[in-house]
Write the structure tokens for this entry.
Amino acid sequence: MVTWMDAHAATSAWTPIDDIDQDPCMVNSCGFMLSVEQGGKPDHITLYQSKTDSDDVDGVLCIPVAMVKTMKVFPKNP
């Protein structure tokens, strides 16, 4: 599970500068991690949601390492 800070729109209309949202947009994402050696994107945490027997993947998310706040890796076979 990766907790990361996402870019987000701080306003939805014309807004006085003093009223701009200052809260971060924190996201929790879970999936199977794909290392760079396995085809993951360099300098990113690459997650996928599903994989076929022929190694086709779906739901791939690439999170820049600089945006990651915490990460917990669960064992493949607990």
About this structure: Residues 2-6+24-71 form one domain. DSSP finds no helices and eight strands in the chain.
